[in-house]
Design a protein that fits this description.
By secondary structure, the protein is of the alpha+beta class. The protein has three domains: 114 residues, Double Stranded RNA Binding Domain (2-Layer Sandwich), CATH 3.30.160.390; 79 residues, DNA polymerase, domain 1, CATH 1.10.150.130; 142 residues, hpI Integrase, Chain A (Orthogonal Bundle), CATH 1.10.443.10. Helix content is 46%, strand content 10%. Helix 10 runs antiparallel to helix 11. The longest helix has 20 residues.
Length: 373
Amino acid sequence: MVDTNLLRGLAPDRTKNRKSADRFDDHFVRELQPPAAGNRVHYDRRGKEPVRGFGVRVTAAGSKSFVLNYTIAGRERRLTIGGYPAWSVAAAREHAKSLRRRIDSGEDPLATKEADRTAATVLVLCDRYLADHASRKRTGKQDRAYIERLIRPRLGSRKVQSITFSDLDGLHRKLTAANGPYLANRVAALLSKMFALAIRWGMRPDNPAKGIDRNQEEKRYRYLTGDELRRLTEALTAYPNQIAASAVRLLLLTGARRGEVLGATWDQFDLERGIWCKPSSHTKQKREHRVQCRHRRSSCWQTCEPRLSAMPGPAASSHPRSCFLVAARMVPWSRSGRPGRASVGPRNSTAYAFTTCGTPTPACSQARAYRCP
């Protein structure tokens, strides 16, 4: 078949094909052939405004992706923008222009991308909190329970940097509805401490838990009545392990904290004068505290004193920690968690006994190692 252009004495019009060959566009990228092996980068050197370092990489398998080569601090870097045809040439070029502006201002976008990919997750934060902080807390076991049951399943896979105030505030609201206001407040306080430590550990610059509106809590006051105290005393008398029972008696007599009793050693006691000198390392206030039994000849002290001489130290094999199971078993209504019930502690009951006997409030606070106003 004869070309009509030749019959008319005219040369074929190749202007359109020449313009397409001079441009770095979708047609050019689509027609690129894969190399025999490895990969090859075709840079944007066509057209009027080529972007320095911008190109398309073609692999031997036929995969095509847009890249940007740049040098920063004497180091050559290559950042992958995206694959073709998911990214068009025009969109990839505009993104390359914005990246080039960041590079010219001294930023390394590839380093930022790598940092985001390797940033710590909430799982990592939880592990470090439990290892470096919760292990030194008296309430460390409770913190671990909250983390394992409520925090890890909901936030564990998230990056620490990606957690927002809305995420934590929403979690607080959900826990309030599902688990009650008190537990929700405890978890909010735990998260606030975890993210405060995340700032110190360089995981993020701010605390997203700051500003969460906590649920209003009503203080609960519950003391052992005379009848309940009598029942507890009888249960302690009948308990087989009298060393453990004496630890509970010491709690009732002095209003001390549980950890102070369990960590006590014999060099702290002066049984002749009825004085217990607790070192600063054992007290919550981190200062030495001297407890004196005002009723040196009381039946409670006389019952407790002979058995105290046989009480082992914290490193002994028969640790008296089991004594606190006695109170839970013998006074079952005092267990926390029952609706409408409040926990009963020896410290509260001791304070109540002090005040009802006319002991001034500052003296009562001093006896229990509280700061006096």
